[in-house]
Amino acid sequence: MRLQLALNVRNIEEAVHYYSKLFDTPPHKRRAGYANFAIGNPPLKLVLIENPSADDRINHLGVEAEQNENLDAVMKRLERDGIADTIEDQTTCCFATQDKVWSTEPQGLSWEWYTITDDNPSEANISKSSVCCA
User: Fold this and answer.
1) Percentage of residues in the chain having pLDDT higher than 90
2) Which of 20, 22, 99, 124 has the smallest C-beta neighbourhood within 10 Å, fewest atoms?
3) Would you say 62 and 112 are in contact if contact means Cβ atoms under 8 Å apart?
4) Is 132 within a domain?
């Protein structure tokens, strides 16, 4: 597993340039207004979402599970503890197909636990109106 940090950025090009240098790695995925980095050390999925008008720099936090079995255990635990807000199966978000569960902490910050089932779905499967990375 690795932590995910999704940031709202004012300018995607400037942010990609900076974070490529900071973590000494190129983006794993680039799309218009979007980039993500799969950083090995420290283990981090850094997601940049171009959103110049956002009041908050943190979009959401997450944990990427490598296997669905790990995610299933987390989903059951969050449901049991009454803190699972939404469960999504095979949803296309951030240009990948994912299974996930969302939970919101008491101050309103969203946490996403997810696993990627298809890292490069066909364009036909990507909703242009998806708000998961907005």
Assistant:
1) 67
2) 124
3) yes
4) no
